[in-house]
Amino acid sequence: MDPMSSGLPLGVDFGGSGIKAAPVDLEKGEFAAERVRIPTPESSTPDNVADVLEQLAAAFPDNDGPVGVTVPGIVRHGVIGSAANIDQTWIDTDAAAVFGEALGRPVEVLNDADAAGLAEATYGAARGQAGLVLVTTLGTGIGAALVHDGVLVPNAELGHLWLSLEGYDGGGKHQPEAVHAEGWTANSIRERDDLGWDEWAGRLTVFYRTLERLFSPDLLVVGGGVSKKADKFLPKIDIRTPIVPATLRNSAGIVGAALAAQRAHGG
Ligand code: BGC
């Protein structure tokens, strides 16, 4: 790897299926070396994930910068507060301490959607946007980041809102009165239930109208792997707020994590 990347922050994205890392050039908001991916251990416990982190750090032997790690759950001052799609033993674990000890380097831990939000606000679809931006990631779960004038308000768990279905036309099918946003509109649900783009966009309309009503955002950014097919569903979401696909896609988590690490521990 390029020795020039020695002092750069290392971004790590801990997801349900893979743990990915790359040193990041923060001037450009881009990877400074090719990303390395290791499958998430079947039992994604803190010890097992810390082992993977050591392997990932070893893949960039010249890199010695601060490390940023995303986690798909609530993160308060390095401590994990929820674990919707990862091993339950993460709850109440001081992830920053566990990873810091494993790596012998300063580590900043943040929620995965917060990392994506930071990256999109700094380098991507919400760059330069004044006011309130809500970045949502549609994947296995639904992640959300609330960014106001470029400043992140962490741990907005908007995927766990309950949505009222009053007035929702479910195509004649019986509907419950309210649904759990993530359990009804995540991309994993679209895939599991084989929903067509129209039906999924109808559900997303309910979700995003709820966010509009509660937050009056200036811009909505939609991330997650499915955002590369944005043309299939974004134009069908019937809301008033401008809504655009994320532009960093796959790299947002790693870039946002590296940025957070540099801000917290960089010289
Ligand atoms: C978690 C969030 C996370 C999101 C995306 C949700 O189930 O509660 O913390 O950001 O999934 O991974």
Outline of the structure:
The chain is of the alpha/beta class and 267 residues long. It has helices at 46-58, 95-103, 112-123, 181-185, 187-192, 197-215, 230-233, 252-265; strands at 10-14, 18-25, 30-31, 36-39, 67-71, 75-76, 79-80, 107-111, 132-138, 142-148, 151-153, 162-164, 178-180, 219-223, 243-245.
Task: Explain what you see.
It is a single chain. With 267 residues, this protein is an alpha/beta fold. It is 31% helix and 24% strand. It has helices at residues 46-58, 95-103, 112-123, 181-185, 187-192, 197-215, 230-233, 252-265, and strands at 10-14, 18-25, 30-31, 36-39, 67-71, 75-76, 79-80, 107-111, 132-138, 142-148, 151-153, 162-164, 178-180, 219-223, 243-245. The strands form four sheets. Strands 1, 2, 3, 4, 5 and 8 form a six-stranded mixed sheet that branches. It has a five-stranded mixed sheet with strand order 11-10-9-14-15. Helix 1 crosses helix 2 (95-103) and helix 3 (112-123) crosses helix 8. The relative contact order is 0.18. The structure holds beta-D-glucopyranose.
Per CATH, the architecture of the largest domain is 2-Layer Sandwich
Top-tier CATH class of the largest domain: Alpha Beta
For this structure, the CATH topology of the largest domain is Nucleotidyltransferase, domain 5
Q: What would the principal axes of the Cα set say about the shape? A: globular
Mean pLDDT equals 95
Taken together, the total number of domains comes to: 2
State the fourth-level CATH superfamily of the largest domain: ATPase, nucleotide binding domain
Which molecules are bound in this entry? beta-D-glucopyranose
Poorly predicted ranges (pLDDT <50, ≥5 residues)? none
Strand count, sense and closure of the main sheet?
Answer: 6 strands, mixed
Cα distance spanning the termini: 22 Å
The count of DSSP E runs of length 2 or more, i.e. the number of strands, is 15
Estimated structural class: alpha/beta
Q: How do the helices and strands follow one another from N- to C-terminus?
A: EEEEHEEEHEHEEEEEHHHEHEH
Strand content: 15-25%
The amount of helix comes to 25-40%
- Continuous helix count: 8
Rg for CA atoms: 18 Å
